[in-house]
From TrEMBL:
<comment type="function">
    <text>Chaperone for NapA, the catalytic subunit of the periplasmic nitrate reductase. It binds directly and specifically to the twin-arginine signal peptide of NapA, preventing premature interaction with the Tat translocase and premature export.</text>
</comment>
<keyword id="KW-0963">Cytoplasm</keyword>
<dbReference type="Pfam" id="PF03927">
    <property type="entry name" value="NapD"/>
</dbReference>
<keyword id="KW-0143">Chaperone</keyword>
<comment type="similarity">
    <text>Belongs to the NapD family.</text>
</comment>
<protein>
    <recommendedName>
        <fullName>Chaperone NapD</fullName>
    </recommendedName>
</protein>
<dbReference type="InterPro" id="IPR005623">
    <property type="entry name" value="Chaperone_NapD_NO3_reduct"/>
</dbReference>
<comment type="subunit">
    <text>Interacts with the cytoplasmic NapA precursor.</text>
</comment>
Length: 117
């Protein structure tokens, strides 16, 4: 098995020509909050560009997807959510970085897996 440094790992799939291409950060968050906190989260997410709110069907639990060209904006939004009254926890469940052009490419509806090397 080939060993990779952390730097090499994060460069996987990128070529030298990708250096100038914009990167899009997509993060999914899970928020636990009181009823008042959920209302505050809904209001804030409604005013945030690149943010989507998804109801989970469970009282006090909301799922949020954030999209930004800057990872700092993801961190700032997470901090802003944590500071809302009635918000108990904000957990980043996933954070994906993808080239902007790759997000525009058509894809199959089926999931794909990467073969082990």
């Amino acid at each position: 098995m080939r060993e990779l440094s952390r730097r090499d790992f994060f460069k996987l799939g990128r070529t030298a020509g990708d250096a100038d291409e914009p990167i899009v950060h997509i993060a999914s968050l899970l928020v636990r909050a009181t009823e008042t906190g959920c209302e505050a989260v809904r209001a804030l997410i409604g005013s945030m560009p690149g943010a989507e709110l998804h109801e989970t069907g469970q009282t006090g639990k909301l799922a949020i997807v954030l999209e930004s060209a800057d990872s700092r904006a993801i961190a700032d939004a997470t901090t802003e959510l944590q500071q809302l009254p009635g918000v108990l926890t904000v957990s980043i469940v996933a954070h994906l970085m993808e080239s902007a052009s790759a997000l525009e490419e058509p894809h199959d509806a089926e999931s794909t897996t990467v073969p082990a090397t």
